[in-house]
Design brief:
Layout: E1 3-10, E2 19-25, H1 35-45, E3 49-56, E4 59-65, E5 70-71, H2 76-87, E6 97-101, E7 104-111, E8 114-120, E9 125-126, H3 133-137, E10 143-146, E11 150-154, H4 158-163, H5 168-171, E12 178-184, E13 195-201, E14 206-209, H6 216-227, E15 231-236, E16 242-249, E17 252-257, E18 259-267
Parallel strand pairs: 2-3, 4-6, 11-12, 13-15
Antiparallel strand pairs: 1-2, 1-18, 3-4, 4-5, 6-7, 7-8, 8-17, 9-10, 10-11, 12-13, 13-14, 15-16, 16-17
Length: 268
């Protein structure tokens, strides 16, 4: 029996932008499709994340794997999963996608060409940088903080964010899922963005993630405190790049993005 496997570019309205994720559609629980098998599939796909969906009475179980590890929260592969369910008619477009995950229940709704995701807020607490962090980034920090998953470093300008060339070998020694580097967007930046960011996660098997939805669960509350607005637009300034709209709602963050399917296949 073959298993549908779909590749989606998330946080992009056109192919070859945003962040690619594979979505593996499992029809039921199967002891053969255990964590080790999922990790093998994710390593074979060699993308930032591969999502695995199993239907249940009130939605789907959802798990995310990088080529190296399972993670507790992933935005772009959740976006890709909801997109695949609606596009394949496994879920009517007027019904929300409901996912049971290691970070609780995550709901997604289709809003025209955009998808809204209800995620937990993970604000950073100011902290002294761990040994080697700033040296590995070769960055001068305005702020360093730690969220549930990641370190966040604010630098002085968008140009500094874009020009970073981290030492990934040294960055791998920093204990965290990943490192978010951010600044306010340039006043001349096209698109009306409020802040920019990049995300590095060599310890999780990804030197640089193209667009990281879950990082915006930390970026949104951080920039809300500095900009005084609940709703903002972020640009992740990787080589592929991607737009993430955010809205802080108490202890939750609504993330909005677009997605496009680029490959459909079958896992044998």
């Amino acid at each position: 029996m073959t298993i549908p496997l779909i590749q989606v570019d998330a946080f992009s309205s056109k192919p070859f932008g945003g962040n690619p994720a594979a979505v593996c559609l499992l029809e039921e629980r199967n002891p053969a499709h255990d964590e080790r098998w999922m990790q093998h599939v994710a390593r074979e796909m060699n993308l930032s994340e591969t999502a695995f969906l199993v239907p249940r009475a009130d939605g789907h179980d959802l798990r995310w794997f990088t080529p190296a590890v399972e993670v507790d929260l992933c935005g772009h592969a959740t976006l890709a999963s909801a997109h695949v369910l609606w596009e394949s008619d496994r879920l009517p477009a007027d019904r929300p996608a409901r996912f049971h995950t290691k970070s609780g229940i995550l709901a997604c709704e289709k809003k025209g060409s955009w998808i809204e995701m209800d995620f937990p807020s993970n604000p950073p607490a100011e902290s002294a940088p761990p040994p080697g962090l700033l040296e590995a980034l070769a960055a001068r920090a305005r702020f360093v903080g730690r969220s549930r998953f990641d370190w966040l470093v604010e630098v002085g300008s968008e140009e500094e964010v874009r020009s970073l060339a981290p030492d990934f070998g040294r960055l791998r020694d920093v204990v965290a899922r990943g490192i978010i580097v951010t600044s306010r967007a340039s006043t001349t930046a096209a698109g009306g963005f409020d802040f920019v960011s990049r995300f590095f996660a060599p310890r999780s098997g990804i030197d640089e993630d193209p667009v990281t939805g879950s990082a915006h669960c930390t970026l949104a509350p951080y920039w809300r405190e500095r900009l005084g607005r609940d709703a903002m637009v972020g640009w992740q300034a990787s080589a592929r790049g991607g737009e993430v709209r955010v809205r802080v709602a108490g202890t939750r963050v609504v993330l909005s993005g677009q997605a496009v399917t680029v490959l459909r296949g079958e896992l044998l």
